[in-house]
Design a protein that fits this description.
- With 170 residues, the chain is α+β, with helices and mostly antiparallel strands.
- The chain has one domain: Immunoglobulin-like (Sandwich).
- The protein contains 3 helices and 9 strands.
- Strands 1, 2, 3, 4, 5, 6, 7, 8 and 9 form a 9-stranded mixed beta sheet that branches.
- A hairpin with a 3-residue loop joins strand 4 and strand 5.
Length: 170
């Protein structure tokens, strides 16, 4: 009597294992992690409602596949939710400054960024932040988007002569 039950158990086991489908390998996808230094960004008053923000954007590949940056957007946000300024920069903005527009697997790209924004009222700095968004394509052709948001604090005013020198040098 034990033989038919043993045979039936082996048959059920074999048919159960056969029901599992083969799994295909999922290709890695490049993933760009963004960081901004300093965090929070210091907005330095230049006078006449103008503010200068100097910060570094670090783009770090963390998915295991190299990525090419298509473009990136920097947004100024007030009152924690209201976007007051948006500017999108193509990858050529990075390459024109001597940086590569791609990040190899496990590597990073760090570049300095200076923006001047005119704010009609200092009230817009209440709950101010900046949002950086990068759109990429990895080596496998997969598209992705990464975003980071950082706070903005008002720093000390830049002396008028230094502000004038900076404007003349640009």
């Amino acid at each position: 009597m034990p033989r038919p039950w043993a045979f039936l158990a082996i048959l059920v086991l074999l048919s159960g294992c056969h029901a599992f489908q083969d799994e295909s390998a999922t290709p890695l996808q490049g993933r760009l992690a963004l960081e901004v230094f300093p965090n929070p960004i210091i907005a330095r008053p230049l006078g006449h409602d103008w503010y200068e923000l100097q910060f570094d954007i670090v783009m770090r590949e963390e998915g295991g596949v190299g990525v090419r940056i298509e473009n990136f957007t920097v947004e100024a946000v007030a009152f924690r939710t209201v976007t007051v300024s948006t500017r999108t920069f193509p990858a050529t903005y990075i390459t024109e400054r001597g940086y590569p527009a791609s990040v190899e697997a496990g590597k990073h790209l760090r570049f300095s960024f200076t923006r001047r924004w005119q704010l009609p009222t200092p009230l817009l700095l209440s709950g101010a932040s900046a949002r950086v968004r990068a759109r990429t394509v990895d080596a496998n052709g997969l598209r992705a988007e990464s975003t980071v948001r950082v706070g903005v604090d008002v720093g000390d005013a830049i002396a008028p002569e230094k502000a004038l020198q900076r404007e003349e040098s640009e």
